[in-house]
TrEMBL record:
This is Class I SAM-dependent methyltransferase. Gene3D superfamilies: Vaccinia Virus protein VP39. GO terms for biological process: methylation. Keywords: Methyltransferase, Transferase. InterPro entries: Methyltransf_11, SAM-dependent_MTases_sf.
Length: 279
């Protein structure tokens, strides 16, 4: 008898995947990955475009957050080539343009493809459903991965590929949600079909397995804090809010739970930011 499937036609998560001891999707067959990829391919583009057109505050805006968690720790660094993995419309990486000679962007939504990013040459490529990257070993100097891996089934394969194309001594800037993001077997308002967070202990095992050293590790985005700011009409992405959230995230880091089932569970950071170095 065949095992029951989710509403998306994919396998139900195992108990280990539900509890965050294993990552749902990472062990999918090629056929299951292709189904996931087809559902997810243009999901973020459609979601983000709707938000932009509505005139509402962009919840994906992260300039102050990235400046605080990444860029201030990399003063003076320059990079000949930056691989912007899943960069959407590239607004998150444009700030790097004065310090980068050229960009290579991997982005499924062709509506966002362009020839330059921040005035620097950019070559856009489509992702492969198997997670492989069509670039030579050690061919890029900087990799940016901003809230992308949680949209992908075979995360361990993609982390291995990102590490492979990064040169020895190169840096990777990575930010990913660390909580389940609700029941990822069901449709959710404001989210694409399959996105789910990645437990930090699993992600950090992938780093270690691929020769990536953690230079900086920072929890961020306490859900309850962002919600309170929103109710007060304040911008949770402002520089002041980002700094306050960083303090709260460190204090409440012990309460990072994969499944947040009540208010107490939300009193903890929901995202992890990393600066990584290869070799």
């Amino acid at each position: 008898m065949n095992a029951p499937l989710t509403r998306f036609g994919l396998p139900q998560p195992t108990p280990d995947e539900l509890e965050g001891r294993a990552l749902y999707g990472d062990a999918f067959t090629p056929e299951e990955m292709a189904r996931w990829f087809a559902n997810e391919e243009a999901g973020y583009h459609a979601l983000a475009t709707t938000i932009y057109q509505s005139g509402a505050d962009d919840p994906f805006e992260s300039l102050h957050s990235d400046a605080f968690h990444f860029y201030r720790h990399l003063k003076g660094r320059t990079w000949p080539t930056c691989l912007a993995f899943g960069c959407a419309d590239a607004r998150d990486v444009e700030v790097l343009a004065p310090r980068v000679d050229q960009f290579i962007a991997i982005e499924p939504a062709r509506a966002w493809w362009r020839e330059t990013i921040g005035g620097k040459p950019a070559r856009f490529m489509a992702p492969r459903s198997d997670g492989k990257i069509d670039l030579p070993d050690g061919s890029v100097d900087l990799v940016t991965v901003y809230s992308v891996l949680h949209h992908i089934p075979n995360v361990s394969t993609v982390v291995g590929e990102l590490a492979r194309v990064l040169r020895s001594g190169g840096q990777m800037l990575l930010r990913e949600p660390a909580v389940s993001m609700g029941d990822f077997t069901q449709p959710r308002v404001g989210l694409t079909a399959h996105e789910r967070g990645i437990p930090p202990r699993l992600l950090e095992r992938m780093f270690a397995a691929n020769g990536l050293t953690i230079v900086r590790r920072a929890p961020m985005r306490v859900g309850a804090f962002s919600k309170v700011l929103g109710k007060l009409g304040l911008n949770a992405n402002s520089a002041t809010a980002v700094r306050a959230d960083a303090v709260l995230s460190r204090v409440l880091g012990f309460n990072m739970r994969y499944w947040r089932r009540n208010v107490r569970d939300r009193l903890g950071p929901a995202t992890m930011a990393y600066i990584l170095e290869k070799g």
